[in-house]
Amino acid sequence: MLNSTPLLLTSDKKNLEIFKREIEQTVNSICESLTNDKAYEGLSPEQLQSNLKGIPLLPNQGLGFEKVLQKVSEIILPNFLRTSSTSYMAHLHSPALIESIAAELILSTFNQSMDSWDQSPIATEVEVEVVKQLCQLFDLGKDSDGVFTSGGSQSNLSGLFLARDIFCKNNLNWDVKMEGLPENYSKFKIYTSEISHFSMEKSAHLLGLGYKAVRKVPVDLNGIMDINILEMMIESDLANDCLPFCVVATLGTTDYGSIDNLDKISILCKKFGLWLHADAAYGSGLIVSSKYKKRLGNISLCDSITIDFHKMFLLPISCGLFLVKEAKNFAPLSFHADYLNREEDEEEGYVNLVGKSLQTTRRFDALKVWMTFQVRGKNGYSNIIDTCVENAQYLYNKLLDDKYFEVAMKPEISSLVFRLNNTDEVNKKIRKQLLHQEGIVIGQTVYNNKTFLKFTLLNPLVTHLTLDSIIDKIKVISN
Ligand SMILES: Cc1ncc(COP(=O)(O)O)c(C=O)c1O
Fold this sequence. Notes:
With 479 residues, the protein is α/β, with parallel strands linked by helices. It has three domains: 13-80; 105-371, Type I PLP-dependent aspartate aminotransferase-like (Major domain) (Aspartate Aminotransferase, domain 2, 3-Layer(aba) Sandwich); 378-478, Aspartate Aminotransferase, domain 1, CATH 3.90.1150. 41% of the residues lie in helices and 13% in strands. The chain has helices at residues 13-33, 45-52, 65-76, 98-110, 121-137, 152-172, 176-179, 199-206, 227-239, 262-272, 344-347, 366-400, 424-438, 464-478; strands spanning 88-89, 145-149, 188-193, 214-217, 243-250, 275-280, 304-308, 320-324, 405-407, 415-420, 441-447, 450-456. Strand 9 and strand 10 (415-420) form a beta hairpin. It is globular, with a radius of gyration of 24 Å. The model has no long low-confidence stretch (mean pLDDT 97). Bound molecules: pyridoxal-5'-phosphate. Pyridoxal-5'-phosphate (PLP) is lined by residues 92, 151-153, 156, 197, 199, 250, 252, 254, 279, 281-282, 308, 320.
């Protein structure tokens, strides 16, 4: 027999009341768990594991909603990493704007799937419209198109996938979709900076090319890909019968936020006939800033772009976007299944978005962008982004003048990599102590073979005072 918890949300009045009650109880529990503004309560992995031990995942009899919510309130809610806390600045992992959480509730409640129109009628039309307007925002021209993704890694994989297949078709008269990789696949080369995201290597592996296909180009002191070396590497590879097919520019590197020069890279891509993909997973937020948009450079030069809304745009995970300058270049991703996306559908006006995506079942993440962009407007978003950029600039100026610290490089976006002038061990100890004793979560990385600390400033509620007080704490711990 089914227990008393109703199974599904229907139009039945009693059922609707239960839905409202459970959502309200959940919201209350969330609010009650936020008793302070620490980023983390500090529990160790062992403590968290011991809290979970002995709770059967699948009890013989269901416990009902209230008992389970009670357990969530005791064990899980207090121990979340609180992304909205101004003491959280470890990663490119943002807090979620309040209205975007409401959007999540709506899209999860109705559980649309974006693969075919008959699984998501209005949702498909919203995504199509959102993508159209975002193509304009990113200056990609009238032939551009795009699709929502699970995030930057999937968008980067999509870019390299299209670049590889289109190179094979145009340059080798080879159809990868039908034939698989050509014999000389081990000669294929992708160029990207030595500090680009690891999804380049993972994508090359997944595409059957292997890590060795990724040629890492050195960066200058500002973390920007060295164009002269890039040109030399391409020329030398060509002289050795290699097959360069793509350059990936990073617009906002993961650690430093450094931005490669699209104008210069694009000249080389045109000269050698290479696809230009921009990984703007981090930097794409600058597009809505009146003051700092220029830092991104001329995006219209790109063949494809990775954009993440779950970073600077402060939308809940997941929310990524992949854009291409020429819609026809989505062709390698298309596939017709009789039960899903019939060939005649499009002629009859039914758009099936599965033809542009690596996924089949896919979330209606476009709703979060549609709602939040309208709630905030360009001004609201610009203020958010500008605050974060200026916080990083403030911290850079402050630490530059402080003999206790060394700074890796000047920030272009909103992260700062620095270290206390002390041993690696002391820098590592500082991060752990802040995490477990102060509820402050900061990042750690390696620069010039030394341990550095990192503040990734995505939270617009962070003030200069917040930064001053954490820097003071770091000094105290180090003594
Ligand atoms: C520059 C860059 N590209 C891609 C990614 C991967 O994005 P995601 O985590 O959304 O897959 C990241 C993640 O931080 C990133 O910093």
